[in-house]
Amino acid sequence: MKGIILAGGSGTRLSPSTNSINKHLLAVYDKPMIYYPLSVLMLAGMKEIMVISTPADRPRFEELLGDGSELGISLSYEEQVEPNGIPEAFMIAEDFIGKDDVTLILGDNIFYGQGFTTLLRNAIKHHKHATVFGYRVKDPERFGVVEFDHQQKVISLEEKPVEPRSDFAVTGLYIYDHRAASFARKLSFSKRGELEITDLNKEYLKREELDVQLLGRGFAWMDAGTHDSLFDAAEFVKNIQQRQGFKLACLEEISYYMGYIDNEMLMKKGKSMEKNDYGKYLLEIAGRKHTQQYWESIDQNPMLGLVENE
After folding, report:
1. How confident is the model at residue 295 (pLDDT cuts 50, 70, 90)?
2. Residue ranges per domain, the chain?
3. Nearest to 79 by CA among 103, 60, 101, 97
């Protein structure tokens, strides 16, 4: 399984804050927005991940994240020249995907919840062709809506319906087989001038190859693409971290406890930022003596989860 983070777009909903910077580089409390979707893919077990951004922003992401070696993973980069829609990402990444399955996450989506890592890993393990994640919302007419039967088999998909057939929105997290790129090439541009992810999902649906994985009421899903939602996400992260003492989406911590980097690498990273709370947090982790026991206890941290034996 390979991973893609789509971090392109013009960020007009966050203007003027995004007039000179990609929205996915804006801070969500104490770390860049892109850390959150990247942490999701890393926790799901993916070590080959592509970041797709604009030509102007690609160097900024490369400067921030590098080639991934400091995290024990492999990061590559490609460009989406125009905001032509989510499905274009699969065409851009076609060579990267090859014959592998792929999970795509939108760069402004934040997921949180006890057991989320286990749920995602199980969805990846058991998926066959295409899987979307449904989340109950009070205003489904604002989203792409998925209708499903009692076996969680998708019946219909609608984009911003006037009369929604269910209360479940499709989140910005998708799992597909390697055919996603070829299916995307067959799509037509919508009235919005974009290739629509709903249309790609319908390609799988008409073949009866689309499943939905529901995120229950114990999960939080946030799209940090507006000023209000960005503020709400930052406040959410702040409150969770201050109450629990864990950091959400701390990439170095995830890499360390998943065995991608060793104590020396973690200590080095912490010392490079020792004047701020993030660096001090890394040094605290590196200084713990009983790391395995601590790792077993972090099942209480939904953004880290528990790496299970496969």
Report:
1. low
2. 2-227
3. 60
| pLDDT surpassing 60 at residue 267 | yes
Cβ burial of 31 (10 Å; 0-12, 13-18, 19+) is: middle
Distance CA 126, CA 150 (A): 18
d(CA 22, CA 186): 29
Is residue 252 within 8 Å of 282, Cβ to Cβ? Answer: yes
pTM equals: 0.93
Q: Which residues contact 298 (CB under 8 A, 6 or more apart)?
A: 246, 257, 304, 305, 306
Please give the CATH number for the structural domain made up of 2-227.
3.90.550.10
118 within 8 A of 299, measured Cβ to Cβ? no
Tokens of 74: 């492999």
DSSP, residue by residue, 31-54: EETTHHHHHHHHHTT--EEEEEE-
Cβ(101)–Cβ(177) below 8 Å = yes
